[in-house]
């Protein structure tokens, strides 16, 4: 098995009619090493699902190349399909079948005999804690059970696949189901699998991933370990409501958050009293420019605003992922 | 982990598994199955008892029920096949097609499964219609060869209509729209000799009614069931079915690729 399990260069993809093309991917480059969890973090519409669908051979890029498990995703589509397991945003199981029927069907479709399929379904139901629900229609499953069944369905085939694509595996799950699914992902990685997951939750990427790529508007805005990325984003933000437009313009360059309508600026801070006090004294020695202030903990929005602001020339990162 | 390697299954295995899947799903959508079975029966009763007395089908037929049964059988095939569109559209809506594709299962086995399940459903509903027809006085006089030919023509039409319906399911963006798209299949028997002789229709309609795909099927089934001369109509009917099927398979292949791009 190769050391780099997922490798992509300059992937682009547009959708829509020729008159109204929307560029979803604008030059994505990725390198994901074998074993471990790689998170593709981004807001809705950033291109996460499209990236996964290209890597999983379900759609083709307009330009660029990608290799998964050492095979080209276009030329060697079949080999790639054998090496991967995909769990999509929408549970890819039949609602009107039972959990067991779903898994047996998938096993049959990967070429197992009837008897072996039954056995394989039992093993997987057991492993994902679904034995009790095996004979119930999937339609009656909770969101968490559905995702687990979906993951199990992806495992039914050939020997434990080397690469897992999980597209927003925990979106819409309650906190407990989310934690259960996190454990499943950790177990997969623990068995030596390479997991690429997409998420819009910073916390999720932080919890699970060894490396994170931040995707924004079809480009990689930053890539690195969770620690490296977090160090680039202030943990807290001091939101200031200013008294004059002059003060707003003077301080605008230092801010990570702007809302000109209300003359409000957000400045990075570590959230301690000492630093907040020092910051206020520094920017407003006359005590006339700042009307009110509030402290705001960093959100994913801030991460994006900061990261995209740092990549004012994103074309530089289009071909090769930014090294942090 | 124990040995879990397996070789890729052949087309037949894939299509069989898919048929089993579609049959299980339709068995659990009892409402739709009952509707598509009851509707032709109701229509047959309406035609025989409400309209039949006023329709003159000529001296060749003892009663209207003798004339109308083949038309009802085709109508039944239309209704039964139409549910395929909804089933296919439901598939396209969810993520299951991506799962199949990631297992290297393309569109054809999935659609073949839906069509095969539709044929099975239709065999059940056709039998039901036939049973009710016998109860209300239909007395077939077909030879064994005739029965075989009737079954062949019906099967061919059901398969062709089901596959067209599957293509409609790929074309429609929602299952609701898919249901609407198939209305013409349930409508096509009316401008034919299914319920009234074509001669009784306005002249400008004769061209269409005589040459549309349902007419040879009805003419041949009626002739065969009543042991009357049918000429080459069974062959024309089979040719129509084969043509429709070929177009449907080709179109659904293209549509599937477009939908999953």
From TrEMBL, chain A:
UniProt domain ABC transporter: residue ranges: 6-242
Primary localisation category: membrane
Native organism: Streptomyces clavifer
Places the protein is found: Cell membrane
Any one Gene Ontology molecular-function term assigned to this protein's record: ATP binding
Family the entry assigns: Belongs to the ABC transporter superfamily. Drug exporter-1 (DrugE1) (TC 3.A.1.105) family.
Highest rank taxon of the organism: Bacteria
Membrane topology: Peripheral membrane protein
UniProt-listed SUPFAM superfamilies: P-loop containing nucleoside triphosphate hydrolases
Keywords tagged on the record: Antibiotic resistance, ATP-binding, Cell membrane, Membrane, Nucleotide-binding, Translocase, Transport
Record-linked Pfam families: ABC_tran
Listed name of the protein: ABC-2 type transport system ATP-binding protein
TrEMBL record, chain B:
Main location (coarse class): membrane
The entry's keywords: Antibiotic resistance, Cell membrane, Membrane, Transmembrane, Transmembrane helix, Transport
Subcellular location: Cell membrane; Membrane
Domain ABC transmembrane type-2: 31-259
Membrane topology field: Multi-pass membrane protein
Transmembrane segments: 30-52, 64-89, 110-136, 148-171, 178-198, 235-256
Highest taxon listed in the record's lineage: Bacteria
Classification via InterPro entries: ABC2_TM, ABC2_TM_bact-type, ABC_2_transport, Nod_factor_ABC_transporter
Record-stated family: Belongs to the ABC-2 integral membrane protein family.
Protein known as: Transport permease protein
Native source organism of the sequence: Streptomyces clavifer
